[in-house]
Amino acid sequence: MPTPQPRRAPGAPGKRFAVLDPATGEAFDEAPDQQPDELDAVVDRAREAWHGWRADPVARDTALRAAADAVEAVGADLAQVLTREQGKPLAESYAEIARTAARLRYFADLVPGPQPITDGRPVRSEIRWRPLGPVAAIVPWNFPLQLASAKFAPALAAGNTMVLKPSPFTPLATRLLGSVLATVLPEDVLTIVTGREPLGARLASHPGIRHVTFTGSIPTGRAVAEGAAASLARVTLELGGNDAAILLEDVEVERIADRLFWAAFRNCGQVCMAVKRVYAPARLYSEVVEALAQRAKTVVVGAGLEPGSQLGPVNNAPQLARVERYTAQALADGARTVAGGHRLDRPGYFFAPTILAEVPPDSPVVAEEQFGPVLPVLPYRSLDEAVEAANGTGFGLGGSVWGTDLDRAEAVAGRLECGTAWINHHAELSLAQPFAGVKDSGVGVAGGPWGLYGNLQPFVVHRPEEA
Predict the structure, then answer these.
(1) What is the DSSP letter of 295?
(2) How far apart are CA 194 and CA 216, in angstroms?
(3) CA 15 – CA 306 distance, rounded (Å)
(4) Is 126 one of the annotated active-site residues of the chain?
(5) What distance lies between CA 139 and its chain's CA centroid?
(6) Whether pLDDT at 461 is above 50
(7) Which of 275, 312, 406, 410 is 20 to 30 A distant from 304 in Cα terms?
(8) Is 317 exposed, middle or buried (0-12, 13-18, 19+ CB in 10 A)?
(9) Mean per-residue pLDDT for 48-73?
């Protein structure tokens, strides 16, 4: 099918902003800079569309399946745009698009049927499920399409409509996706708005929005929750992580080194549930550091559209500055660079894949979320010490344990304060599982049936057995 062109957003002509290619640091396109006062009309249309969309679950199922087919049909065009604005290797963009289509089909299959209540009373009680209304989604720049679909697929399947705002660093692929989906979805069921702040703040606090789902930083997440509180809208917040990987004494370092490396460095380390700290037993510490450093030194770093690139650039200049700042602070604190540690001498936002050893545990690169191609490796002398350190931040998204004794590894995993724990791998999610963090890593649950029911309101009907 021909690739639809993004619909030109409403608003005054000329209100547009530049979109930069992170592989060059230069502008290559632009997107509409919609203004907060335009949201009233957008949300009103989403509410009007909701009345028809909520009424016909069979039509919704058909439309979502057609949407998945439409995404796959223009996958090559979407992948090119996504890589150009986000920076990731083209193969990873194709994987993101495949995940988007798969998620649409998954939620099309989930039907929220009525649930009887059996409590011994002479009445027939039943829980039915109702959609909430217009939902707002605010999506970051690391996985623009995948995270967008993680929000709109369950919301639409539940019978809601959605207004979705992508990051201003990556608006183009999402706008193109919206135009593709507009060919199979009723008008105003899914609306993409693009622009800079305070557009997102106004969307999160809009009185016509009944559910706000946000992925991003903790400070912005708190602001989103405060804005949504004004209208008592439901909130789902995924606020990042500082996932720890604990290697046990019986781990076979060379056997797991590739998996561990890519669990930290996929998408240039810009993954909320990436490994961001490694704790290795003192006896194996040097071996672990060298195994990871060898991979960091040999991975192919380049523009995502270049054949053979395994690792792209950091997405944007502010994030590159953050990565540089955290690395410089770690070195000032006494850390040692074993691989990388510097920006690459080429155009764009490239930073050498970096392994840091001998990092003080209170250095920001350990205690906070660096969100880039930098990995600190820390030694431990007792397992209790490692678990305490892994749990010793305000984050609690994910964690992993690596070793050959799976029962022991599972027992250690059970001590981690996080939403998901993996054994001998990391950051792998099924569409059918819940995804949630604890502590500062978020509020609410995404994924699987939990993601669907998070977009629904229970409605209870009591009926006597006899008139």
Answers:
(1) H
(2) 16
(3) 33
(4) no
(5) 8
(6) yes
(7) 275
(8) middle
(9) 97
Identity of residue 122? P
Contact status, residue 345 vs residue 319, Cβ threshold 8 Å: no
Mean pLDDT of the chain: 96
**φ, ψ of residue 364 in degrees (nearest 5):** -55, -30
Please give the single-letter amino acid code of residue 76. A
H or E segment to which residue 323 belongs: helix 317-332
Hey, what's the torsion of the CAs at 359, 23, 265, 147, to 10 degrees?
120
Please tell me the pTM assigned to this model. 0.95
Residue 344: DSSP 8-state: -
First-residue to last-residue Cα distance in the chain: 57
What whole-number percentage of the chain has pLDDT above 90? Answer: 94
- If 0-12 CB within 10 Å is exposed, 13-18 middle and 19+ buried, where does residue 14 land? exposed
Judged by DSSP in three states, 389 sits in helix
Per the CB < 8 A criterion, the answer to whether 398 and 418 are in contact is yes
Strand order in the sheet with 234-238: 190-192, 161-165, 134-138, 211-215, 234-238, 442-443
Q: How far apart are CA 126 and CA 118, in angstroms?
A: 9
Taking each helix axis from N to C end, the angle separating 144-157 and 57-73, rounded to the nearest 10 degrees, works out to 160
